[in-house]
Every structure is written in structure tokens, then in C-alpha cells.
Amino acid sequence: MNTKQRNTLIFRILLFGGTAISLFFVPWVIVFAWIKPLPDTIDAQLEQTLDCGFEGVIVYVDQGGKPPAFYTAGWHDRDNKISAYPEAYFKIASISKLYTAVALTKLAKENRLSFEDKLSKYYPELVGRIENAEQITLKMMVQHRSGIPNFTDNPAYWVDEQGNGQNALDFALDLPASFAPDDGYEYSNTNYLLLRSIMDDVLGYNHNDYIKAKILQPLELKHTFFSITEVDLDDVMSGYYAGIDEDFKEREYGMMATAEDVGKFLRALNDGSVFNPGEQELYPYVYDHGGLVVGYQSLAEYHKDIDAVVVQFINTTDFEGYEWNLSEVAYNRVVKILRKSE
Predict the structure, then answer these.
(1) What's the alpha-carbon Rg for the chain, to the nearest Å?
(2) Residue 91 sits in a domain of what CATH number?
(3) Which listed residue, of 89, 213, 292, 312, carries a Cα 20 to 30 Å from 236's Cα?
(4) Among 235, 213, 222, 295, CA closest to 262
């Protein structure tokens, strides 16, 4: 074997080895979920969704010109063998940011605050503790362009999540900014923690009451709440974490709603009916969202090409696994089925 042949052989061995190693790290569970033949019905897709390791799923579809449709599979309460049902309350987590952004927009139209206000205007005591507090605007915070560190990215926060939630801001203080104000994007729950506190100060009362009066009541969203203390816990869908037997529905995670209420809100947000004249032009945030807390993950989006609002609730999480990615795959397959039926 001459030198050229030997080098070619070595190159091929290295190439094969590199390919084999890369294949080892491919998230095959996601690949298999994606390439499965697409079912003809959403009900069949939900059964496939359960095959990904989820305990229960609810899907709501509001497609223009058709009555709302509800789909469920799996468990509402695994331990008590109660099947999933569409009227269950679900912890919507960060989908609540959409309600906050709309409420802020209404306050801006009422000239009770401005999106150009600086964080330091409301909390001068945070100057020096949150970097760039004198340059960060409320609009940057709404859009996650403030550079303020995300308190849920701090490992110390998770040592006692429920207890530390009472002083969550402490876990974002005295840390370097992720980037200069308006010079990047990083999703940060700290932004909305501060924005909700600012609304309380501006209003002089709890911002939840403002959201109820300005958003929930006008839209007749009678199945949206701000705490598990407002509802019968049996009506809340159980939440599970992969590999843990505990039911997490007794944990306080803020807003809860039925899939239908979230869908109605999302429709109103996207068609503009949630806004009064002059408000939508001020609105600085997105028009769809997802949510993720221990035991609960959700997706709510409007698809203009088929005039459909689709909301998906899944009551199983694993922050170190692929459950979020799998839920996105499942959601996108539901949308594909809707498009095929057009």
C-alpha cells in the first residue's frame, strides 16, 4: 500500500468514525416522532403524542367558519384514573405574558405609563443592582431585549423553587447584564416579574384585577383564573415530571385557564378585538406564545393561512429531556392535519 492509498484509508476510517459518533448524539426520539406517517385525524395524532411519554393532552381548535373542536387523550388524573377532558383548568405559565403585554398596552393608551419609561423611574433602588437600569425601557423588557438576567436560569433558584418564588428577583440581582439594552434578545422571566410589579404600583392595586376588568370580562373569559386558590383543585389537570411519582397540581404557578378560554383570548389578540381604538398600534409584543413550568407545557398559536387558533396542553415535562421538542412536533403535526383537511 503506497502513501496515498494509506492516507485515503485513514481518512475514510476517520470519516466513518466521526459519522458513527455524530449518529450516537442524534435525538432519535424526536426524529422518529417527526417521521411517523401523519394520521388522518387529530384524535389519532393525540394517541401518537401519548406514545412519546406524555400522560395527558388537550387540543382546542377554533377554525374560521367552523364550530370549535376539542380533542383529548390520556389522563386528567393518572392516580385516580380520570380521563383527560377539555374543560379542565391548566397552568398556562408564560402564555400569561400575552395578557400582561395587552394590559401594559392599555395602560400606555391611558397615559398611565409609557413604553419608553426607564426601569429606574419606577425602581431607582435597582440602579447598581440591575446593570443598565437607567437605560432599559419598559418596551425592551416586554420584548426581552433588556439584557436583564433570567432568575430561572440561576441554579440556586431551583434549590427551593416554591419558596424562592416569593423573592424571585433576588436571583437576578447583582449579576452582569446578558447584553447592552436593545442590543440582543434573551428570554427572561425577570422582565415580566418587574413589569407586573410596576403595573401594581401604577394602578395602586393588583394588576390581576385590571386584567380581569379590561380583558377577561369584556371577552367573557369566565374560566381564566390567577391562582389555584380560586378554583376546585379537582378541576385542575394533574401535572407530572418524567420519572417522578408526584402530582404537581398543588404547586402555585399563577394563571390557569381552559384551552377554550386561551383560544378565545388568542383569537381576540390576533384579530384585534381585545384592543380599544388606538391600542393595537402601541402593542409591542408577539401574538402567540408557549408556556412551561414543572408538570405543564402549552402552546397557543394562530395560523393565518387556515384561519385557525390551535391550543395544545400537555401535562408532562422533563427539563433535561426532549419533552418540549416532542410537544412542538406533536403540535405541528396537528396543524399539518388541519391543513390537509382544507
Answers:
(1) 23
(2) 3.40.710.10
(3) 213
(4) 222
